[in-house]
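G., the chain you wanted modeled:
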Amino acid sequence: MIQALAFYLFALVVLLSGAMTILSRNPVHSVLWLILAFFNAAGLMVLVGAEFIAMLLVIVYVGAVAVLFLFVVMMLDIDFAELRAGFVRYAALGLLLAVALVAEILIGVGAWSAGGINLARRAAPTDAAVPNIEAIGQLLYTRYLFIFEGAGLVLLVAMIGAIVLTHRERSGSRYQNIARQNARRPQDATRNVRPEIGQGVQL
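Predicted structure as tokens:
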């Protein structure tokens, strides 16, 4: 009974916060509603026994992605009135995406009503006694090791590409000369003086 109440509570909050993420006029409020949706989705994952996915939702999505969204929205000078003005122009694309999402929901409901999943026919069956995190680690670093490393390389290339594309040469910038700094002697940097009373220090 408690699990059912927790499920309906988390599901209701996820639906409401997702709707408020779209309907909020203030983009900061939208990001905060999105964070609430992520937290409650993590609660749903805990209920079904997928604690690793719940941890990823909290650490990766809430701790990194949503906070990054929040910083971008708060720090960049974005003209949201101009963005809203182009809503009608993209209404057809938004409607197409909405139809696709509804179709996916209907397919998911049909798959759920078709019956349970045969666990023996899974692509990577695991022992029920092995915890989720341990099972995921065993699969990632054995069967899917090269795919996992390939994904890491793709992210590395994407990061380097973003840095190269956004790098700008600035005129008048002063850069460090490490060799010159290391060659500098203490007596060249300081000077011992004994000023007279009432006389200032000469720079």
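The mean pLDDT is 79.

Shout if anything looks off.
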